[in-house]
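Protein modeling request. Please complete all fields; requests missing the sequence field cannot be processed.
Requester role: graduate student
Desired output: 3D structure, token encoding
Chains: 1
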Amino acid sequence: MKEKLRDMTRYIPGLIFILLGLVIVAFPMLLVAFASALLILVGIIAIAIAHKTKRLEDEIGYLFDSEPFEKSFWDQAQKVFYRGPWY
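Delivered output (87 residues):
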């Protein structure tokens, strides 16, 4: 019985899309709402990615304030491990 029920769950996404299509045929204004919600969601995701990218650049930006081989290896290592003000 459990295996039969588990096999039936494979069809749930398809059934959901079919029902969603039927609802949109019945109420076309829902398509506008779904499209606008999708655009809003994509915009929020784009802003979140931009924010994460800026934070990452700020976090590692101090590593690239000089040429990589301008100073000794130990000075570069100290810069990475201590993350304090670099003199």
